[in-house]
Write a structure and sequence with these properties.
- It catalyses: (sulfur carrier)-H + L-cysteine = (sulfur carrier)-SH + L-alanine.
- One of its GO terms (biological process) is cysteine metabolic process.
- It is an enzyme of class 2 (transferase).
- It comes from Arcobacter nitrofigilis (strain ATCC 33309 / DSM 7299 / CCUG 15893 / LMG 7604 / NCTC 12251 / CI).
- There is one protein chain.
- The chain is of the alpha/beta class.
- It has two domains: 3-9 and 258-384, Aspartate Aminotransferase, domain 1; 15-255, Aspartate Aminotransferase, domain 2 (3-Layer(aba) Sandwich).
- The protein contains 13 helices and twelve strands.
- The chain has helices at 15-21, 23-26, 37-40, 43-57, 71-88, 103-114, 133-138, 161-171, 242-255, 258-279, 308-317, 337-341, 363-382, and strands spanning 3-4, 64-68, 94-98, 118-122, 143-147, 174-178, 197-201, 212-216, 285-287, 298-303, 320-321, 352-356.
- The strands form three sheets. It has a seven-stranded mixed sheet, sandwiched between helices. A three-stranded antiparallel sheet has the order 9-10-12. Strands 1-11 form a two-stranded parallel sheet.
- Strand 5, helix 8 (161-171) and strand 6 form a beta-alpha-beta unit.
- Helix 1 packs antiparallel against helix 9, helix 10 (258-279) runs parallel beside helix 13 and helix 11 crosses helix 13 (363-382).
- The radius of gyration is 22 Å and the shape is globular.
Length: 398
């Protein structure tokens, strides 16, 4: 049996989405910017896709959603656009973010630091929770942007976006959120949360890879990251991948429906909890960040005495896919920076394994995964030269 439990890295394309994309490869293939009927034939489905994107995050009609290649491009579009508009060409020189952001945010902020920008990285507590009041404490006259993720890609922890949005609005500071791991798992509402910029990627909610979006609230325009043609109203040059845009729109519609979100909260969460509770029966296993306030599909578990990469190897031999954290950092064998930020000791920071489910997982798959995981932990601890189980040290979660 093959069991895919790495849905925070990427998801399978929903068959209904794939079917909707097919005509745009060989039948409706015109360049949407061409004036002839072959190009114009793409327009109705592109408009429909944009409407689905607007509805999925509750954007207003006057707002913009720019189609990009992925969330990484979307994040760079916002942060570097703010750098150009508010820092290079303005009187601002400060950005606020957190210590547990996706590398697309962190690496972009590090680049801006090399250009003289001041960046504040706010800490989280041992449960991975960010205190929204820290935002208010660190905002100053020079602050150009606050960028805080909606949900963490490794633990699933949900951040207080509504509170942060209110604080930023009161202070007159632009607010960006990376919603890549939130859309399709929990309700995302940019109007209710006073979000000015939002980034997302289709392949995280059963759409195709290679396409994403940047939400820009009316009145918060940005200098484009890519210059060239007048596509996307001049906000992002380059011929639009119509098939992917159509696929992303339908994937958004399917993933953000009331039925889909209820299924995540009930069925997917039930399977996640079954997997998690069975793993916690193993001595000295820990849910990093605890069980509260998470997306329904994600758990990051530490197996004391077992390297995360060793666990992945054993599970892979039994055709189970999981990860040790962000797929964008999967080749980096340094201690997990998110676990470090949570205050995990140096040993535990190498032992985390992330399991992330989707609506396509079944109970039969979870039962099989539980058996494989328990056998793998037992085998790896038995051959370890350093692990020794001390019952009094066993805890079930932080």
């Amino acid at each position: 049996m093959e069991v895919y439990l790495d849905n925070n890295a990427t998801t399978k394309v929903d068959p209904e989405v794939f079917k909707a994309m097919e005509p745009f490869f060989c039948h409706i293939y015109g360049n949407p910017n061409s004036l002839h009927k072959f190009g114009a034939g793409t327009h109705p489905k592109m408009v429909e896709a944009l409407n689905y994107l607007y509805e999925g995050i509750n954007a207003a009609d006057a707002d913009d959603i720019i189609i990009t290649a992925n969330a990484t491009e979307s994040i760079n579009t916002v942060i570097k656009g703010i750098w150009i508009d508010k820092i290079l060409n303005g009187n601002k020189n400060h950005i606020i973010t957190s210590e547990v952001e996706h590398p697309a945010v962190t690496a972009t902020c590090r680049f801006l630091e090399s250009q003289g920008v001041n960046v504040t990285y706010l800490p989280v507590d041992e449960n991975g929770t960010l205190d929204a009041s820290l935002i208010k404490e660190h905002i100053k006259e020079e602050t150009a942007l606050v960028s805080i993720m909606w949900a963490n890609n490794e633990t699933g922890k949900i951040f207080p976006i509504k509170e942060i949005g209110a604080i930023c609005k009161e202070a007159g500071v632009a607010f960006h959120t990376d919603a890549t791991q939130a859309i399709g798992k929990i309700r995302v509402d940019v109007q209710a949360c006073n979000v000015n910029y939002l980034s997302f990627s289709a392949h995280k909610f059963h759409g195709p890879k290679g396409v994403g979006g940047t939400y820009v609230q009316k009145g918060f325009e940005l200098t484009p990251l890519l210059h060239g043609g007048e596509q996307m109203g001049g906000h992002r040059a380059g011929t639009v991948d119509v098939a992917s845009m159509v696929g992303m729109g339908l994937a958004m519609k399917l993933a953000t429906s009331e039925i889909a979100l209820a299924y995540e909260e009930n069925h997917v969460k039930k399977l996640r909890d079954k997997l998690e509770n069975a793993i916690l029966e193993i001595p000295e296993t820990i849910v990093i960040g605890g069980k509260e306030n998470r997306t329904p599909n994600t758990t990051l578990i530490s197996f004391r005495g077992v390297e995360g990469e060793s666990m992945l190897w054993d599970m892979n031999q039994k055709t189970i896919g999981a990860s040790t954290g962000s797929a964008c950092a999967s080749e980096d064998l340094e201690a997990n920076p998110v676990m470090n930020a949570f205050g995990s000791d140096s040993e535990l920071a190498h032992t985390g394994v992330r399991f992330s489910l989707s609506r396509f997982n079944t109970e039969e798959e979870i039962d099989y995964a539980i058996t494989v995981i328990k056998n793998a932990v037992n085998r790896l601890r038995n051959i370890s030269s350093s692990y020794a189980y001390t019952p009094k040290d066993h805890v079930s979660q932080l």
